[in-house]
Amino acid sequence: MSFVTINDINPKVLKCEYAVRGEIVLLAQRLQQDLQEKPGSHPFDEILYCNIGNPQSLNQRPITFFREVLAICDHPAILDKSETQGLFSADAIRRASEILNQIPARATGAYSHSQGIKGLRDTIAAGIEARDSFPADPNDIFLTDGASPGVHMMMQLLLSSENDGILCPIPQYPLYSASITLHGGTLVPYYLDEATGWGLEMSELKKQLEDAKSKGITVKALVVINPGNPTGQVLSEENQRDIVKFCKNEGLVLLADEVYQGNVYVPEKKFHSFKKVARLMGYGETDIPVVSFQSVSKGYHGECGKRGGYMEVTGLRHEIREQIYKLASVNLCANISGQILASLVMYPPKLGDESYESYIAEKEQILSSLARRAKTLEDGFNNLEGITCNKAEGAMYLFPQLHLPQKAIKAAEAAKKAPDAFYARRLLDATGVVVVPGSGFRQVPGTWHFRCTILPPEDKIPAVVHRLTEFHTAFMDEFRD
């Protein structure tokens, strides 16, 4: 009798990597357990997780209106109780009642239509229309468990062999490299320009596309992450127009990761969806395929554990849409709480609703705090010898560059680690601060970075800066050439 060994499993799984929950994080969890079992066993008293965009794990409060609606939907019997009027706002009760009437049998524990509950898709389409000032069709919307399953579905659809490629930004969110690997395709990198605030240069896109073609790779799609992860930039509308034109001319599907659309921190920049930009340019439904991804995990809501999201699929032929529907059907449906949340995020309380003022106050408090945290961390990094950090215009991350001494690079080589992974491991051991090495996101060869979230509670941000400053100063002194 022989059991499965590591050599027997799918080599694509072995090859796939996901740095955001990688080696450094596993070590951090062990250190946290040490601190619980043996307080004082390390030179810090708590682990400060700056590795993943998981706001509520770092004490961000959920939006009250969203949770009131969810609570009523999950337990509709409370609508018949007299005390409910005093416990929940009138508009949350009204909205929950409307949603329950859209759900067959009013049961959030039942499967839904594979594409998502029709009434919720209607609401999301109305929200997209209000955001973009262009029509949205509920039949274009596929509700998903967060944005990730939508990305996987599109990779599964587009990639048939290693000769099929997807243009991806470098640095990139490792979901893309992982899903391309799992589905057997080839990642075609285009490098963002750190010197221009992580700008996307059209000449770089053209060069990489031609290079891929010369190697016999058929490039099917272009991924754009806006606002950027891990880089935090917000694209200008002009840049977006150039990207749309490039995809139109080259016959590429535009895969627009727009999950951070609610996270823009600089007044001079605004979020514009790629579908809106394409429509402003005069391109209609049949002119260019745009697939956009949205999630309830990010923004000001941060409902990561609820696993809600959607993709809006426009410009693809009917027979291709049928295949996407088939893939969605294999998964039966997205979870119902996530579906409800997606509709609430895209169509929140309006002026005149009882919850409107408290909703706006909660939203603005979270976003203004995130903006302050981003600025404090950015300044803290830029005050350190050998670190340069671009401005965080949006999203939830900073991606500072490490200019390390040769001695440190040689020590990393001796430890068989990438220099930024060596740095991140030393940082964790000395301070309890968890960051993700830039090598997990890919980067320009010969450069080293790390990704740091802006999510620790605002009162803990000075401690992050202080610990990092003390560590970095000692590290640079230790390895000074």
Short description, anyone?
By secondary structure, this protein is an alpha/beta fold.
Describe this structure in words.
There is one protein chain. It is built from 17 helices and 14 strands. The longest helix is centred in the last third of the chain and has 27 residues, at 356-382. It has 2 domains: 6-59 and 366-478, Aspartate Aminotransferase, domain 1 (Alpha-Beta Complex); 102-346, Type I PLP-dependent aspartate aminotransferase-like (Major domain) (Aspartate Aminotransferase, domain 2, 3-Layer(aba) Sandwich). It has 481 residues and is an alpha/beta fold. The strands form 3 sheets. The chain has a 7-stranded mixed sheet, sandwiched between helices. Strands 9, 10, 11, 13 and 14 form a 5-stranded antiparallel sheet that branches. It has a two-stranded parallel sheet with strand order 1-12. It starts with 10 loop residues before the first helix and ends with a helix. The protein has helices at 11-15, 23-37, 64-74, 84-87, 90-102, 118-132, 148-158, 174-182, 202-214, 237-250, 274-280, 318-330, 336-346, 356-382, 406-414, 419-431, 461-478, and strands at 48-49, 141-144, 164-170, 186-191, 218-225, 253-257, 290-295, 309-314, 387-388, 397-398, 401-402, 433-434, 436-437, 448-453. It comes from Daucus carota subsp. sativus (Carrot). This is alanine transaminase. Its EC number is 2.6.1.2. Its cofactor is pyridoxal 5'-phosphate. Keywords: Aminotransferase, Pyridoxal phosphate, Transferase.
